[in-house]
Design a protein that fits this description.
This protein is of the alpha/beta class. About 45% of the residues lie in helices and about 10% in strands. Strands 2-3-4-1-5 form a 5-stranded parallel sheet, with helices on both faces. The structure holds adenosine-5'-triphosphate and magnesium ion. The site of adenosine-5'-triphosphate (ATP) has 17 residues, from helix 2, helix 7 and helix 9. It comes from Rhizoclosmatium globosum.
Amino acid sequence: MLELNPNVRWTDIAGQEEAKTLLAEALVMPALMPEFFKGIRRPWRGILMCGPPGTGKTMLAKAVATECNTTFFNISASSISSKWRGESEKLVRTLFQMARLHSPSTIFIDEIESISSTRGGASEHETSRRVKTELLVQMDGVGSSLIKSLDGRDPVVMVLAATNLPWLLDEAMRRRLEKRIYIGPPDLLAREQMLRISLKDVDVEEDVDVEDIAKRVQGFSGADIATLCRDAAMMKLREKMRSVKPSELNLLKPEDLKLPVSKSDFEAALLKVQSSLSSADFERYDQWLADYGSA
Ligand SMILES: Nc1ncnc2c1ncn2[C@@H]1O[C@H](COP(=O)(O)OP(=O)(O)OP(=O)(O)O)[C@@H](O)[C@H]1O
Ligand SMILES: [Mg+2]
């Protein structure tokens, strides 16, 4: 459940400059100056990153863990709802207690809609209802004034959540995730950066025109671009494998596999890999943000 050292840095993430700045500010400043962030200036109780799949939400949270000097806890929704049946709400309570003790802390909840969706109703499992309630109670900081962090200060615990289905969140959770950040698909510059990041460990032929490819992958998500690059980078290897008999594979030397990616590899990959995002989805995010977005 707790993942240590995800090792993602701000520079590994293309674009999303606003989100990076906002996260750094919202999570780090209150931790540095808790006395200032009191009363009307109290920090956000929670921050919600929402946007289409594969745009870097989980990556941004991992970068927070690496780059911001706060203790980082990562709850995956599936681990609290299934594995810990019965013990789940105790787990949530303990987690927040630990976070207060090791304050300043950030608790990251990925795919939050799977814990806190409105679907509930009568069919909802008793356990998940109790987990949901405990999470809401803990986010309100009930009982937190009784605990001091190890450094003797009032604890600062921030919840950072991510979802690609924000409209499924129930109202109580939405209210606690006061700050909402849209993580959208990459613009031209970000796409170019993303291509360069994806290709940094492979040899690239001179005929590969990254700027041109960036223009042609408009509408792709970051994940789609990563898939494209992987596909292009594997093209030559696949050809090579086809030309070698299986019995001779062990005779291949590492230098035989030093096969730079070329323009034609990208052309072939571009025919296969498509954008996974649709314009209907974008309208849905626009609408949700118009209704519930925050400055
Ligand atoms: N801004 C970005 N910069 C660099 N790589 C990116 C970026 N966005 C996405 N990627 C690539 O896409 C992959 C998936 O990104 P990530 O898991 O952060 O998406 P997500 O927004 O959390 O998606 P989901 O909503 O499906 O959980 C990453 O491993 C990375 O290869
Ligand atoms: Mg994710």
